[in-house]
Each structure stands twice: as C-alpha cells, then as structure tokens.
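Sequence design from tokenized structure. All designs in this work follow the same two-part layout: the structure record, then the generated sequence. An example of the structure record is given first.
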C-alpha cells in the first residue's frame, strides 16, 4: 500500500512498504472509514481516527468470535488444532469473554507479575552482557526477542532444556506471511507440547502460571482442555512479539534523536511516561485483531453492513491530530497520554503490566550500562512485513559502554 488512492483498487495485505505513518495520516484526514478489497474478494473497512477506533474497540456490535482470517492468509490446518489454540478470551464475545477473563485473571495476578521483576532483571543483565563485545550489535535479535520469550517460558513453567525449541516454534508462528508454509507444523508441535505440559502440571503442579490455570476454579467452573491450551497459546503469542516490538521500536526512537536518550539519562523519573509515549508514538500493534459486524454499524456517520470485516488501526489512532497535540513529535512528558496501544474495552491487554515491567527494566539497564549507545551513521530503518504488528526488521547499535 503505497498511496492513499491505491487502497480502493489493490488487495490489502498490510502496510508492507516501509513506515505506514504517512499513508495512515492521509487516509485518516481524507476518509472517515476506508474501504479495502481483501485478498479473498471481500471488502474490509479500515478505521483510523482515535474517536472511532476507541468506540469500535468497545462496541458489542463488532464481534471477536469469528475466526476467519480477515486477509485470507490462514494456513490450512486440522480443525482440532485451530479449536485447541483459539478458544481464548481474545476470540470470544460476551458472556464467554467475561467467564474466560475472570478465570485467567484470577491466576495472572498483579502479585505474579511483580514477582517476575528479579527474573526479568537477571535475564536482561545477561543479555546486555553480550553487548559488551566491540562492534555493531542487533538489539532486536540479541535483546528484544530473547527477553520476552524467556519471561513467558518462566511464567508458564517451561523447563529450561525445552526453551530453545519452544522459541523456534513461536518464532515461526509470529512471523506471519514470510513463514506461512511452516506455521501448521509449528502450531501443531507447540500444541502437542502444551498438552503434555498440562498433563504433567495436573499430576505435579508447580508455582508457575500454567499450574495455576489448571487449578483455577470459580464456583466449580474451570477452563476446559481446549481453553487451557488456547489461553497458553494466547499468552505466548500476545506477550512475545508485542513486547519485543515495544523494546525495538522504543530503542530506535530514543536513539534516533540523541536528545531523547540524554534527557532520560539525566532524569530517570521520566522513564515511565516515556514508555507510555513510546507506546503511543510507535504502537507495537499496527492493527487490532479484526472484528466482524454482527449488525449494521455506523462509524462516524458511515454505515458498515452486517457481516463485514472491520480493521481498527491502533497505530493511526495514536497519531490522530484531533486527539494529540503535534502527534508525530515524541514528547516524554506528554500530558493525558491516553493511547490505545493496549486496546480498550473488555479486550484491553491483560499482559500490559508485564510488558511495561519488561520495558522499564530493559531501558533502565541500557541507559545505565551503555550511556553512549548510538545508531550507526548509515542506519536506515526497515519495517517488518506484518499485517498486525508494527516492528523493525533489525536495530543495529554501537553500545560503547
């Protein structure tokens, strides 16, 4: 998608050609809702303005229960594999969503997240040790990706010896279109592994989240086997790529203009609001997972027919001029930064506190240990081809401890 006029003619397969911010700005300013022809012949509707995206995220007329891929890019896979990996709260409407979230939230407590601080710090320190070698390092490959998968493995209680293989499966699944042919085997292998882990946790529970999910009960109600594997799958996918993107995108924006990096070095108290600004400025998620209209829906005066696919651009909403002053500028002290990077409404990201924790630990350590870190002079950012995610392909840095 290279021009605002092209979207009415070309099948929409994501913003694959560079940084999409300028394209989204033009769409946002010129159209309330943009009609997009999808690869399977259907028409999708792209919503880009903050007010409309926020309202749509909480609109019960937009269903998350329909699992058909909005872009027709779903790899062929046995129905039982899909069922055992997509019976989670992100793909559920009310009242199922409330039930699933209540059971998961009871196990995924604030105390459990806070209890991960020492582990996150230890892993971060070990990863940053690797940056001490002279030369150019890829911060995404060496830090941004290894950290969240290590955290999720620890959280779920994945044995240390299994984590390398576990990470390989997850990397294939989150890669999307570039590794679509490998996805069925990776998803099936991961599902088989999760099933075996759940069996082991039932007979020998530990302090991990997976054991807690198995044991969690509310008035006799428990997660079914398919709901358990799907929830574990959701925690893996949602907590891996998004957090890695927050770290990668964030480090790039801080290093892109040296004054941002130096300001945080001088005033560490600005780090918390700076992370919120990084989430707004370059949201890790480009498009919220798609919705399907269960009835005729009106957005900004535009009527969308029942049964339509709706794509909500978090990336665009967070740069909307009608909501944020000078939205393209990075402002670590931006007031009232009510961004939508973690969504809104009943599907607001359950893992947001953990993502913020990981970002805080990483950026604190980077600023302290590598105060003179910089980008190579010839670095040109390349954005990863992804329908849902907004992420750099790599981030070369010169650490200079």
């Amino acid at each position: 998608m290279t021009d605002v006029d092209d979207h009415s003619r070309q099948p929409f397969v994501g913003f694959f050609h560079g940084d999409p911010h300028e394209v989204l700005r033009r769409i946002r300013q010129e159209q309330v809702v943009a009609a997009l022809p999808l690869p399977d012949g259907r028409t999708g509707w792209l919503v880009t303005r903050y007010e409309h995206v926020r309202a749509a995220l909480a609109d019960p007329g937009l269903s998350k229960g329909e699992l058909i891929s909005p872009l027709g890019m779903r790899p062929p896979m046995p129905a039982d594999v899909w069922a055992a990996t997509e019976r989670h709260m992100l793909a559920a409407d009310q009242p199922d969503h409330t039930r699933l979230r209540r059971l998961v939230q009871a196990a995924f407590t604030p105390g459990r997240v806070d209890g991960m601080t020492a582990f996150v710090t230890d892993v971060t320190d070990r990863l940053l040790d690797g940056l001490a070698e002279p030369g150019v390092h890829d911060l995404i490959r060496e830090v941004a990706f290894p950290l969240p998968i290590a955290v999720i493995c620890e959280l779920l209680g994945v044995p240390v010896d299994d984590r390398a293989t576990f990470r390989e499966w997850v990397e294939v699944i989150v890669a999307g279109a570039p590794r679509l042919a490998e996805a069925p085997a990776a998803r099936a292998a991961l599902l088989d592994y999760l099933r075996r882990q759940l069996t082991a946790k039932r007979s020998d529970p530990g302090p991990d989240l997976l054991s807690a999910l198995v044991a969690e009960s509310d008035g006799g109600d428990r997660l079914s086997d398919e709901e358990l594997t799907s929830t574990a799958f959701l925690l893996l996918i949602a907590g891996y790529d998004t957090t890695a993107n927050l770290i990668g995108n964030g480090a790039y924006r801080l290093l892109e203009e040296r004054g941002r990096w130096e300001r945080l070095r001088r005033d560490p108290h600005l780090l918390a609001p700076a992370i919120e600004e990084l989430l707004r400025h370059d949201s890790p998620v480009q498009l919220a997972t798609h919705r399907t209209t269960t009835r005729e829906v009106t957005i900004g005066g535009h009527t969308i027919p029942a049964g339509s696919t709706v794509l909500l651009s978090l990336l665009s909403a967070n740069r909307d001029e009608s909501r944020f002053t000078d939205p393209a500028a990075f402002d670590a002290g931006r007031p009232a930064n009510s961004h939508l990077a973690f969504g809104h409404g009943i599907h607001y990201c359950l893992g947001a506190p953990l993502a913020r924790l990981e970002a805080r630990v990483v950026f604190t350590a980077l600023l302290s240990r590598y105060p003179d870190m910089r980008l190579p002079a010839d670095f040109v950012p390349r954005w990863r081809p992804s329908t849902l995610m907004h992420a750099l392909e790599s981030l070369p840095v010169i650490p200079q401890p």
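The chain has a mean pLDDT of 89. We note this feature because it recurs in several other targets discussed in the main text.
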